[in-house]
Design brief:
heterodimer; A: 115 residues; mainly alpha; 6 helices; 76% helix; elongated; B: 345 residues; alpha/beta; five-stranded parallel β-sheet; 5 strands
């Protein structure tokens, strides 16, 4: 397991616990997650001013990241979802999400090589 | 193997569920509400459960649930919400609107599996009970029918009339309901159930005769006024027999409703001078108005202990004299119009 602080983005132990130690499945799930364009949709919706649609995207990412034990991203997107549902958002929260997503992607790519 | 439908727009979510469930179930996936409904309403083999996300593009989970519940084909399939929603209101709403379970993400697939199993078992048990109930109800109705028909054949035997009288009245009723069924005048009252049961029920129209003493029933000569009053009671007796067999359960059992109407009112007259209740015109139940015409016709063309038989034409002439007084004029006219078919019986 990588010892460079990326565990806070991918909690391998928690995930394997959920899927009965099936590393191969986890690899598939992570790759599937990366293929999902939801984060781009979220940004697009915010740029268009459609905060309701963006909230739905945030909600979806929240669920998926929870299921896959991507804790760092989950925390960030949970905060953003609440803001969007209330009709607004803080730039810092959006940036925090995007950063988390980037770090998550790195963590996944590193992990996938090892699994 | 039973099939389960998983509905979620995120592939990873579907995969986690599929991984654990495909051990025991055949898994079908949908990535949005429209796909899900398409599968539900069109799939060949029955789906045993639906695992449904709430937040999805276009149609949300609540809308999908609503559509599942309003279709009789699918309304009893257990639906489990699996969602990242974490507000109490959504859970309450989900369960109130008919979902059997509400599971939040992240979930433990083993827990989901256990719940799915439980809900499927419950749903299966309920289906089994429903089938049993239907069967029992059917048996009950059949028992009623058999009892009444046995009584009817006993009457025939005792009256020394040929058992053909019952058969002929049934055939005549068949012809009449088939003919009147398409008539817009009776469209509201005469549905397929009415017709089916009126035909069967007419076999019982004289069941009340079992309560009439033989000396009067089989008397070859003219009846005294008192004797006639006694014979008239066979209408009331017949209706009471039906009631006692049904034991207050006649509301839903159409066969018994028709039987009671026919037994009690087949001697009522259109002008209100009939018996036992002196009902007038359309107050006389429709089935009884038809039965009255059939009964008189068959009596006229048959040999009875008190008279010889008339010919078909003679019988029709005699009946025409009762148009508007004894008989419902409209139904009598219809009877005349199919008289060729009737003559062949």
């Amino acid at each position: 397991m990588p010892d460079n602080g990326l565990e806070k983005y991918v909690d391998l132990e928690d995930a394997l616990n959920r899927i009965r130690g099936n590393r191969k499945l986890y690899k598939i799930l992570l790759q599937s997650f990366l293929n999902d364009p939801r984060i781009d949709e979220l940004v697009g919706n915010i740029e268009r001013g459609d905060l309701a649609a963006a909230a739905k995207d945030a909600h979806t990412i929240k669920g998926a990241s929870a299921n896959l034990s991507l804790t760092g991203l989950n925390e960030a997107v949970t905060v953003l979802e609440l803001q969007l549902k209330a009709g607004g958002y803080h730039k810092e929260s959006l940036e925090s999400c995007l950063d988390s997503f980037g770090e998550t992607r790195n963590a996944i790519e590193e992990l996938v090589n090892e699994l | 193997m039973s099939s389960i439908l998983i509905v979620d727009d995120v592939e990873a979510n579907r995969l986690i569920l599929k991984d654990i469930l495909e051990e025991d179930y055949d898994i079908i996936e949908a990535k949005n509400g429209e796909e899900a409904l398409d599968i539900l309403f069109n799939v060949g083999r029955p789906l045993r459960a639906v695992l449904l996300d709430i937040v999805m593009p276009d149609m949300d989970g609540f809308e999908v649930l609503r559509r599942i519940k309003e279709n009789p084909m699918t309304e009893n399939i257990p639906v489990l919400f699996i969602t990242a929603s974490d507000t109490d209101m959504d859970e309450i709403r989900g369960l109130s609107e008919g979902a059997v379970d509400y599971i939040t993400k992240p979930f433990d697939p083993r827990s989901v599996m256990a719940r799915v199993r439980n809900h499927i078992k419950q749903s299966r048990d309920r289906e089994r009970l429903e089938v049993q109930l239907e069967r029992k109800t059917y048996e009950l109705i059949k028992t009623h029918e058999r009892t009444l028909e046995t009584l009817a054949s006993i009457i025939e035997y005792r009256s020394l009339e040929s058992g053909l009288h019952i058969k002929r009245t049934v055939e005549l009723m068949k012809i009449m309901v088939n003919h009147l069924f398409t008539d817009p005048r009776y469209r509201d009252e005469m549905d397929a159930e009415f017709c089916r049961y009126a035909v069967r029920a007419v076999a019982l129209h004289d069941i009340g005769k079992i309560g009439i003493p033989d000396e009067i029933l089989l008397k070859p000569g003219k009846l005294s006024r008192d004797e006639f009053e006694i014979i008239k009671q066979h209408t009331v007796i017949g209706s009471e027999i039906i009631d006692s067999i049904a034991q207050g359960a006649t509301d839903g059992i159409q066969y018994l409703n028709r039987a009671r109407e026919i037994c009690r009112s087949h001697h009522e007259r259109w002008d209100g001078t009939g018996y036992p209740d002196k009902l007038k015109q359309e107050k006389i139940p429709l089935a009884a108005r038809i039965a009255a015409i059939i009964d008189v016709y068959d009596a006229l063309v048959s040999v009875r202990c008190y008279k010889a038989a008339y010919s078909h034409e003679e019988a029709l002439n005699i009946m025409n004299e009762g148009c508007g007084t004894q008989f419902d004029p409209y139904i009598l006219a219809e009877f005349m119009s199919v008289s060729d078919t009737i003559a062949d019986i």
